[in-house]
Amino acid sequence: MKHDEAVIRIKNLRLRTFIGINEDEIRNKQDVIINATISYRASRATCSENIADALNYRTICKAIIAHVEHQRFSLLEKLTNDVLTICCDHPWIETATVEIDKPHALRFADSVSMQLSWQRPE
Prior knowledge:
Number of helices: 4
Order of helices and strands: EHEHHEHEE
Shape: elongated
């Protein structure tokens, strides 16, 4: 049986970064929780044992970590867009969705999140 579309999910990647516009947010790193869903055509990888035939999710994750932990962000929208751009940075990727939670951003709420999606143009 040949499978074509593969979906990679990076779940609950917990990082710390500078995010926000308030004085306390500018001075102190805060937790963010990143979830990403990436789809690509995996027909070569499903019939192979060669890593070169698969999308390397570890490489994507390491790029996300490096970017998020070494930057400062005022807006959750910008952070989410940056992570989405990293997730789409391979010619095999067909679609990607990123959601980033900022825990305790609002009183009485567990978190605030931003979600952005991308699809390769046909």
